Amino acid sequence: MIVNRENIERFINTERAVSNIGRILGAISKAYIEPEADDSHTNFFWCSTNLHLETRHIHLPNDEVLSVSYHPSHFHIHFETETETKPKQEQLVLLKNNSLDYVLKKTAETLSKFGLDPKKFHDHVEFRYPELTNINGKLFTPEKSLIHQFELIRSSANNLLISYIISNNIHAELPRVWPYNFDTGIVCFLDDNIIQYAGYAPADNEVCKVPYFYNSFYKNNQQIISDSVLTVGEWQKEGWKGAILRMDDFNDSAEFLDAVLPFIKQSSEQINKTIN
After folding, report:
1. Maximum distance among all alpha carbons in the chain?
2. What is the pTM of this model?
3. Which of 66, 85, 180, 248 matches a 20 to 30 Å C-alpha distance to 232?
């Protein structure tokens, strides 16, 4: 199944259900990873090979390192230690057909097994879409075919953003997924104190009601937009300001993804003309 105008609302709920579990990983990161001023300690890596979200490393009291990952199509959260001197430890928290209370309880118990204080985790748990955490007493389970589309789109977003960075020789970290908006984004540090934020975001109430790619620029902490007209995407000048590429402007998600690099290229070129 490919995402199109007929099933886009079901896909939006799929992303929201996945993002709710991402908030559990975000709570773990906030509780046990040394904080950074920009909250980057809370963001995730999307693995395009194994198709999972993964936190940054968590250093345990016994000096081992814990990795926590979420596998959407396998419906579980995976805990694993990494060590050269001891056998690795693995624990799973199963999501499918279980209640939110069960998942939070099992997550807390698992964190305790690794020597972490579970209360710290509970203090950070909050959900952006709580209506999907209790469907007849259980977590909402998306259709498997739409989860596979989620995996495809997130992997494509990763690869497209990396391609943009490399082809333009840009100084930027690899794409990360941020728990609040659940967007896959890059931060690019350009010449003349210009910072570029580009990425893929799920539907939201602040910018766009359907999934979209975005491209925005700041110079000396002041936002820059262009008065030019995009042939791919559009400039948004009210509320959040920047260029966006809407999924529902295309017949399906394949056409949408094909337009991403032309969209980023054209909107970036228009900003360069605005500055110069």
Report:
1. 60
2. 0.94
3. 180
Residue of 139, 172, 188 whose CA lies nearest to 19: 139
Q: Give the pair of three-digit tokens for residue 165.
A: 């960075």
What dihedral angle (degrees, nearest 10) is formed by the CA atoms of 153, 159, 165, 168?
-100
Q: Any idea of the CA torsion for 246, 249, 254, 259, to the nearest 10 degrees?
A: -70
Output the tens digit of pLDDT for each of the chain's 276 residues. 799 999 999 999 999 999 999 999 999 999 999 999 989 999 999 999 999 999 999 999 988 999 999 999 999 999 999 776 666 788 999 999 999 999 999 999 999 999 999 999 999 999 999 999 999 999 999 999 999 999 999 999 999 999 999 999 998 989 999 988 999 999 999 998 999 999 999 999 999 999 999 999 999 889 999 999 999 999 999 889 999 999 999 999 999 999 999 999 999 999 999 987
Q: Give the helix/strand (H/E) hosting 272.
A: helix 260-275
How far from the centroid of its chain's Cα atoms is residue 131's Cα?
20
For residue 70, list its beta bridge partners.
53, 77
CA-closest candidate to residue 206, choices 231, 229, 188, 183: 183
Q: Is 244 helix (H, G, I), strand (E, B) or coil?
A: strand
The set of residues, in sequence order, having a beta carbon less than 8 Å from that of 23 and lying 6+ positions away, is 125, 126, 127, 128, 179
User: How far from 218 is each of 193, 195, 264, CA to CA, in Å?
Assistant: 8, 5, 15
- Give the type of residue at 99: S
d(CA 134, CA 74): 20
* Amino acid type, 165: I
Total Cβ atoms within 10 A of residue 222: 8
| Phi and psi torsions of 72, nearest 5° | -55, -45
Integer CA distances (angstroms), 219 to 23, 92, 112, 216, 276, in order? 31, 45, 45, 11, 12
